[in-house]
Every structure is written in structure tokens, then in C-alpha cells.
Amino acid sequence: MKNQFDTLFLRLQNSPFRAKFKLSNKDKAYIQQKTLETIKIHCQDFVQKRLAPALIPNDGKQTPMRGHPVFVAQHATACCCRGCLYKWHKIPNNRPLSSAEQAYIVAVIMEWIERQMK
Fold first, then answer.
1. Please, are residues 39 and 113 in contact by the beta-carbon 8 Å criterion?
2. Residue 72: which H helix or E strand, with range?
């Protein structure tokens, strides 16, 4: 069965900027130590605090490039800021993210992480 994110990930891989992001060995070891379920909890928290508000004062700069596997995944999947969410995922700016949109973003990020772990 074709994964619901295959088309998205193919598009993202055609972006030189997005395609350069990969989990490092340190990131993978961290995920193995903490478990994917814990990483998902971290992801949900980051999305809720850093992306879900209607207005983000430092939008476009709120997600570090490294330091946590979720941050790397956010850039790889264009889930790093509201501008990228609109451009790549057609999620509108200037309003809070719905719980369904937050769940979608977490699912995209976690799918990318799981693929990187294989």
C-alpha cells in the first residue's frame, strides 16, 4: 500500500534545501535511547508551543537547525515555520492551528523520522 506521505516526501526530496537534512548518528542514538514514543511527545510539544499559535513573533527563526531530531525533521518536512507550512502543506497563516492540523504535522514529522531510522 502506498503511504499517504510518499508524494509529499518525493516533492521535498526535489528541494535541495529540504533534501540535505538527515538524522545524524547522534540523533539516531538519542531516538533509540528515548524511544519513538517519547520523541513523538517532544514533537507534539514543539508543534503546540512553536507552530500552533496564530502569531509567532520570530516566525521563520523559531526552529533550530539541530539539537533535537525533531528540529532536523521539521526542516526536512517543511514543518519548521508557518511560512513553510503554508507553502508546502497549504496550512494558512495568521490563525491558530487546529488540533487536526497539529496531528497532521506530528504525523508527517514522525513518518520522516521513522523512515530515517530504517
1. yes
2. helix 69-76
pLDDT digits (tens, 9 = 90+) for 90-116: 999 999 999 999 999 999 999 999 999
> Predicted confidence band at 67 (pLDDT cuts at 50, 70, 90)?
confident
Calpha distance 74→63 (Å, rounded): 8
Residue with cell 507552530: 51
d(CA 99, CA 97) in angstroms, rounded, equals 7
Distance of CA 60 to the CA centre of its chain: 13
Place of cell 502506498: 2
Please, are residues 112 and 80 in contact by the beta-carbon 8 Å criterion? no
Angle at 74 between CA 98 and CA 84, to 5 degrees: 65
Please state the pTM of the whole predicted model.
0.93
Pair 63, 75: CB distance under 8 Å: yes
Taking the C-alpha atoms of residue 87 and residue 114, their distance in angstroms, rounded to an integer, is 24
Could you give the angle at the alpha carbon of 88 between the alpha carbons of 82 and 92, nearest 5°? 45
